[in-house]
């Protein structure tokens, strides 16, 4: 694999599993020193660290609850202390759809929805605000969204879709703000994946009918889009929304 990111420092939020772990492995494989966050499973996080280090690359994990935005500045300080700077930020940490309940469902768990808003929207903003204070010029900000950020298409996803749409617009605003520093800010709309954020693949199969490519995506396929935006050939791509969801919007 090309070492196109040699000398770069990357931070991936929510990097202990699924798409986050695939992204950690990809960026490390391209030569970056990678830090990532996890919220609960230290064992899963350590397994990713061990896997990266076995390949001769560097990785370090930090436990962070992204619902608490006050933790973001300390996280960035830890990354800088570990690696001396920051070049690439991948905002991946998120909570999935809460049981697919409609807004008029009397049994909807509003506390769970509030936490989802805190992690998926405010958590992303908190990390970006902390990171841009140290992010090197010509750095990269990549925010992971969903096809639901631009097209709902199904009932029961209003709150989740709102968080994704919100962070898309925020990231594109960041692209405008940081363009003079050569920093790019882009969005990847990820598609349906069989990960532990989607614990019931059978229940999701009807959604595949909305796709042009009617199958689940593999986390490595979406990570490849992230790797492109983080790499040296994407220097003139900013304020973009890159679809990696099997043609949900086609």
UniProtKB/TrEMBL annotation:
Belongs to the short-chain dehydrogenases/reductases (SDR) family. Keywords: Oxidoreductase. Pfam families: adh_short_C2. It comes from Kribbella flavida (strain DSM 17836 / JCM 10339 / NBRC 14399). GO terms for molecular function: oxidoreductase activity. It comes from the Bacteria. The keyword Zinc does not apply. This is Short-chain dehydrogenase/reductase SDR.
